[in-house]
Amino acid sequence: MSSLSLAVRDSSTMLRRNLLHARRYPSMTLNLLLSPVVLLLLFVYVFGGVMSAGIGDGGTDRSAYLAYLVPGILLMTIGSTTIGSAVSVATDMTEGIIARFRTMAIHRGSVLVGHVVGSVLQCVMSVVLVGAVAVAIGFRATDATALDWLLAVGLLTLVSVALTWIAVGMGLSGPNAEAASNNALPLMVLPLLSSAFVPVDAMPGWFQPIAEYQPFTPAIETLRGLLLGTEIGHNGWLAVAWCVALAVLGYVWSTSLFAREPK
């Protein structure tokens, strides 16, 4: 078999392994998925009336704020799901299975590829589930065309790939699963500091740069524009640039850490 065929075969095996782990131990995924759903319901039904009065036309109909909120919640869902990847990688590194893999005739990069592809699939499924909850409580993207939906799916997938590679690096750099979980916490906290819940212009002046100059805000604004027909402006290429930069950084960081011989 060629080197490429071996890499694809071994990566597929590692992908099946990670999906089996996720199926047999779903508590981690469910716990991480619960946070975005709770925030969605909390902000819509507790704060939705007041927030809609400020964001919408002055009325108290929660649908205006629900439409504004959902794109940010979907990006937060990806960030929280990738924390599980950091924990999974750290667990593999500390429990000895990676040392066993190093002695076997398998493609070395297949271990990381299996984690990344498995995590991206979990992110997609998590986004679908949270999106279903949003639709069930009234979210509608009536202005989105077929092309807009296609671009939105592409953006969500690109964000998933970028954040997963960063999470894998965090998992490899942590001494144990608990440390890896703490290292990856910014992937869930950063969306809270973005335009996910309120517009950047409504924030205090000193806080606006924190919300504006980070990867989640342009991605959220781009997704919001695709689904709701709002202005995207320069956020589109900024979101893509952030994703590509983070994916490359995470890949280089993760592969360099994984290539190191254990002490």
Compact overview of the structure:
This protein is an all-alpha fold. It contains twelve helices and no strands. The model has no long low-confidence stretch (mean pLDDT 86).
Q: What are its keywords?
A:
single chain, 263 residues, mainly alpha, 12 helices, 75% helix, elongated
Can you walk me through this structure?
The chain has 263 residues and is mostly helical. It contains 12 helices and no strands. The chain has helices at 3-24, 27-45, 48-55, 62-95, 97-102, 110-136, 146-173, 177-183, 186-189, 208-212, 216-228, 235-259. Helix 4 crosses helix 11 (216-228). The model has no long low-confidence stretch (mean pLDDT 86).
Flag low-confidence runs.
none
Number-wise, the strands total 0
Largest sheet: none
- Strand content bin: under 5%
pLDDT averaged residue by residue:
86
User: Which structural class should the secondary elements be placed in?
Assistant: mainly alpha
Order of helices and strands: HHHHHHHHHHHH
- Summed up, the helix count is 12
Q: Measured on Cα atoms, how large is the radius of gyration?
A: 19 Å
> Helical proportion?
over 70%
Ends apart, CA distance between termini: 33 Å
Task: Please tell me what the overall shape is.
Answer: elongated
